[in-house]
Structure formats: structure tokens, C-alpha cells
């Protein structure tokens, strides 16, 4: 695995590199990328950490695993590369932002602009085999990303965690609710959104209200 951890995250995650589960994970991912088409590109596996340094985190959005179609995944959960058609979940995210904070629907689905402002866009599983959703789950990534969530909870204060859908909500047990803010709702996928579990959650305005009350700069969604 050629991907490298950015410096700001090194003290947080380097202890994991020596653990047996991470060695097995590295071996698995290396073999997968050598023999299969996998996403995101190897140099974008840790893009969520590249774009949002540990010291700058204000908001954490948790996804499950990367998009598995060609040219979609860019290492940030729910995000796609510039010029790529917006997947249904991302489309619903943008629709909610339109009505919640009156920002016009954007042309690009690339969420690097959020990450630069301190939004950590973290998938629980950081890689996937092409056209096989969930194919790299339960190989060690979840153990690794749970450590990141715990470390953020332990070492930071006042972070807004956005947990969308049942899978993400389970991560609330890793977060100290006395120090941080957790907003939950249904997942933005059509199945959940069309049943009334997503639209109207106002998570984007609520997040900015929390940040403002913490004397922190609001996110330009």
C-alpha cells in the first residue's frame, strides 16, 4: 500500500501501524490493488486526512465505504471527483442544504471545499473493489477508523459529529457526549430520504449554530 499518512495525523495513528490487524490489512489492500481494480486511487486512500488536518477538525461526517463505480471515489465520504454525476445520496445532501441554508445546488460534487474548512469526511472502510460494494469491509479498516473517532473524541472538544443512518449512529458509543455534539438522522440515500428520515433534518444550519456558539468559524456548505 503506497498511501502515506499526513504529518498532522501521524502521532494519532502511527501506533496502529505496529499492530497485527493493521499489518494484515496492509497486506490485503496491497494485494487487492495489485490484482483488482479498486477505489479510490492508492494515493487518495487517506484523502480525508490529507484534506483535513487533525488540529483543524470542527465537524466529522461518517460514511460507510467508498463509491465503487469508475472515477467516483476521491477518498472523502459522499464526495465525487469534479465533473462526475452526483450519486443519489449526494444529490439528497445538496437538496437539504438548498432548503436548509439557502445555498444554490452546486455544479461539482467534490467536497474538498468542505474538508479545507475543517470537515472530516471519513468512511469507516477506506477502500473497495470496483463494482463490489462492501468488498473491503471487516478486513481491519473499521478497527482503524474507530481509533480515529476515539482519538478525536479524547483529544478534541466541541466537535460536531453528523451520524446519518443506522451504521453511522452505532459510532456514537465511541464519542464523549459531554465534550462533543452529535446530530443524528436517517441516511440521505433515496430509500431512507423518501420515507421522510432525511429531508428537514437541518443538520447544516444546526452545525453552524453550534460552531457560532463556540466562537468558531461557520462552514460554507
From TrEMBL:
InterPro entries given for it?
A: UDG_fam1, Ura-DNA_Glyclase_AS, Uracil-DNA_glycosylase-like, Uracil-DNA_glycosylase-like_sf
List localization entries. Answer: Cytoplasm
What Enzyme Commission number(s) does the record list for this chain?
A: 3.2.2.27
Q: Name one GO molecular function term.
A: uracil DNA N-glycosylase activity
Catalysed reaction(s) here are: Hydrolyzes single-stranded DNA or mismatched double-stranded DNA and polynucleotides, releasing free uracil
Which Pfam families does its entry note?
Answer: UDG
Q: Where is the active site?
A: 65 (proton acceptor)
What processes does the entry annotate via GO biological process terms?
A: base-excision repair, AP site formation via deaminated base removal
Instruction: Please explain the role this protein plays, according to its UniProt record.
Output: Excises uracil residues from the DNA which can arise as a result of misincorporation of dUMP residues by DNA polymerase or due to deamination of cytosine.
Q: Which NCBIfam families match?
A: PRK05254.1-1 (NF003588), PRK05254.1-2 (NF003589), PRK05254.1-4 (NF003591), PRK05254.1-5 (NF003592), ung (TIGR00628)
Name this polypeptide is given: Uracil-DNA glycosylase
Which organism was this protein described from? Cellulophaga fucicola
Q: Which gene encodes it?
A: ung
Amino acid at each position: 500500500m503506497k498511501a502515506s499518512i499526513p504529518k498532522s495525523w501521524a502521532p494519532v495513528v502511527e501506533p496502529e501501524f505496529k499492530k497485527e490487524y493493521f499489518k494484515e490489512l496492509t497486506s490485503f489492500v496491497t494485494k487487492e490493488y495489485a490484482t483488482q481494480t479498486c477505489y479510490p486511487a492508492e494515493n487518495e486512500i487517506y484523502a480525508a486526512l490529507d484534506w483535513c488536518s487533525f488540529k483543524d477538525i470542527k465537524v466529522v461526517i461518517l460514511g460507510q465505504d467508498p463509491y465503487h463505480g469508475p472515477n467516483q471515489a476521491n477518498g472523502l465520504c459522499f464526495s465525487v471527483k469534479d465533473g462526475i454525476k452526483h450519486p443519489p445520496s449526494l444529490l439528497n445532501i445538496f437538496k437539504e442544504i438548498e432548503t436548509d441554508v439557502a445555498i444554490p445546488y452546486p455544479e461539482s460534487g467534490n467536497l474538498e471545499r468542505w474538508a479545507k474548512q475543517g470537515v472530516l469526511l471519513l468512511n469507516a472502510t477506506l477502500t473497495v473493489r470496483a463494482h463490489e460494494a462492501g468488498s473491503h469491509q471487516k478486513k481491519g479498516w473499521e478497527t482503524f477508523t474507530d481509533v480515529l473517532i476515539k482519538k478525536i473524541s479524547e483529544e478534541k472538544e466541541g466537535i460536531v459529529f453528523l451520524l446519518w443512518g443506522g451504521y453511522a449512529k452505532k459510532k456514537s458509543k465511541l464519542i464523549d457526549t459531554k465534550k462533543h455534539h452529535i446530530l443524528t438522522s436517517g441516511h440521505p440515500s433515496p430509500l431512507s430520504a423518501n420515507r421522510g428520515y432525511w429531508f428537514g433534518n437541518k443538520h447544516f444550519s444546526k452545525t453552524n449554530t453550534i460552531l457560532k456558539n463556540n466562537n468558531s468559524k461557520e462552514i460554507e456548505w
